[in-house]
UniProtKB/TrEMBL annotation:
Highest classification ranks of the organism: Bacteria, Pseudomonadati, Pseudomonadota, Alphaproteobacteria, Hyphomicrobiales
Protein name, as recorded: Phage tail assembly chaperone protein, TAC
Pfam families membership: Phage_TAC_6 (PF09550)
Annotated organism of origin: Devosia crocina
Length: 63
């Protein structure tokens, strides 16, 4: 089992969301995960070729 990523969780909650410590520590891991996905997006794994092609089409470098 992988340990909970407390360092990243605190960095996100306190640094990115700028929550006061008492609000951060009152959050459940599920609430923190929901905030994370709202800001960062769902984490689905590494980008595959189809995903890269779709992203390149959506955000072209300029032509």
């Amino acid at each position: 089992m992988t340990p909970f990523p407390w360092k990243e969780a605190m960095r996100f909650g306190l640094g990115v969301l700028k929550l006061p410590p008492d609000a951060f520590w009152k959050m459940s891991p599920r609430e923190l995960a929901a905030a994370w996905s709202a800001v960062v997006g769902e984490r689905t794994g590494p980008l595959d070729r189809a995903g890269l092609d779709a992203m390149m089409e959506r955000f072209p470098d300029g032509r």
